[in-house]
Amino acid sequence: MDHKIVFTGTPGAGKTTAIAALSDVPPVVTDVRNTDPTLAKERTTVGLDFGQVDLGDGQWVRLFGTPGQMRFEFMWRILAADALGLVILLDNSRPDPLADLATYLAAYRDLLPTMNCALGIGRTLECPLPTVDDYADALAAQGLVIPVLPVDVRERDDVLMLVDAVLAQAEVRA
Amino acid sequence: MTDRCPLRLLAQGLSDADLAKVSAFMRLGRDHLRGDWSLVFDGDAHVMMIGYDEPVTVAGLLENPLLMLNVVDGDSPLGEAPGVLPRPLQYESVIEALSSAESRLVRAAVQGAPAPAPAAPLPVAGSVEALAGLPAKTLYRLRRWPPAAVLQGHRYHLRLASFLSPRPLAIDALARLSNVEQEACATFIARLHEHGLVEVMAPVVTPLAPSPAPAAPAPVKTGLLGRIRQRLGITWAR
User: Fold this and answer.
1) Residues B225, B162: contact at Cβ < 8 Å?
2) Verdict on whether the full-model pTM lies above 0.90
3) Is beta strand A43-45 parallel, antiparallel or unpaired with respect to B35-40?
4) Which end of chain A, N or C, is surrounded by fewer C-beta atoms within 10 Å?
5) Which helix (H) or strand (E) holds A77?
6) Taking the CA atoms of chain B, what radius of gyration do you get in angstroms?
7) Mutating which of B157, B165, B167, B180 best tests the A interface, going by the most A Cβ atoms within 10 A?
8) Within an 8 Å CB–CB cutoff, is residue B19 touching chain A?
9) The dihedral of CA B28, B34, B40, B46: what is its sign?
């Protein structure tokens, strides 16, 4: 039996890295050379990322990463359908990260009230503003109670904290 | 207009670079802190941050500070010790230390102990005692995700808040789900309550069954989630 955790978020927020931190096997990635000058990285995901965790007894947790670019928005919701949880990763060094948040909240609007979800904010050391509390304020303004925490997706423990927050919600709803 | 309490951080033996960092961190971290922190160089203070091995005499310092912090070089073997901040100073560790001092002030105020520093204690709108009058099965649910300062102090705060986000839970249920001691859960909820972050709901009254119901087996899904945690190495609080 398969269970699914989806990582979504802005390009460069670290979805591929987060999946790699958890996956039993090197994640399958669909990266191509980046041609977007606003992204400070050589390669970017255009399809989806995929990793998995073997639970034994034929059960797996499949880890999916959505492509970050808006033109792939149609895939975001397809991947999130029936997911055990959704992790939204945002990059605080982008020009308007709160607008990025609004984009993802809008994209998942009808799923979020019942979706186990956590919000991870990256690069808060280099770019301390907006603060994590600003994100929590933005969520509260929309009536959403979603765990939000600063993360460095290169640190496995940080990724696990996000997953733990998602699993906690799943457990309460079980 | 502000109701934030003035708090003093006494710096001693720090380099200009360290002082500039601390000052900037206090400014940046203002939203994560409950008090109005100022950097001072003499007199009584709530927190003392020193760059020497031993503190020297400080003019006007009459009371022991609530918290002593030692700033050491990054390669010092003391770097991981409690109360030690390794260079280069990091935003999170400085703010966490100041937040910890604030929590100590709150605890001192709750316990009726005299505040060891000259400024007035932080206002405490509620406490564990505030929850004591409520029925044991009272339900609590987060109104909104708490500010970072409220979650600081222990990693399980994040987990407890996550459990409280989707639906209302009683303290005993929260303790069982989170594997965190019931007293710690109550203390955390009291802290949320102080900040107006939890909705308090009357317990659900269920009619008495004619005979004690057998204990229900754990839901399959809960077992699955436990296995995912175990497989990923997510450790529990206890």
Assistant:
1) no
2) no
3) unpaired
4) N
5) helix A73-80
6) 22
7) B165
8) no
9) negative
pLDDT in tens, A78-92: 889 899 999 999 999
Contacting residues for A160 by C-beta, under 8 A, at least 6 apart:
A22, B232, B233, B234
Q: Which residues, including other chains, have CB under 8 Å from residue B193's CB and lie 6 or more apart?
A: B126, B130, B131, B140, B200
Short-list B139, B163, B167, B142, CA closest to B237 = B163
The residue ranking higher by pLDDT, A43 or A25, is A25
Q: Give the full edge-to-edge strand order of the sheet including B139-142.
A: B169-170, B139-142, B198-201
Please state, in angstroms and rounded to a whole number, the distance separating the CA atoms of residues B22 and B78.
Answer: 20
Decide which of B96 and B103 is more confident: B96
Structure tokens that stand for B42 in this block: 């003499």
Mean pLDDT of B110-138: 49
Q: How far is A78 from chain B (nearest CA, A)?
A: 23
What φ, ψ does residue B115 adopt, rounded to 5°? -65, 135
The length of chain B is 238
Which of A139-153, B78-92, B100-114, B181-195 is the least confident region? Answer: B100-114
Q: Which residues pair with B68 in a beta bridge?
A: B48
Torsion, Cα A39 A44 A47 A48, to 10 degrees, reads: -100
Contact B85, B13 (CB under 8 A): no
Q: Residue B147: list chain A partners with CB under 8 A.
A: 133, 136
Instruction: Give me the interface pTM, i.e. the ipTM.
Output: 0.88
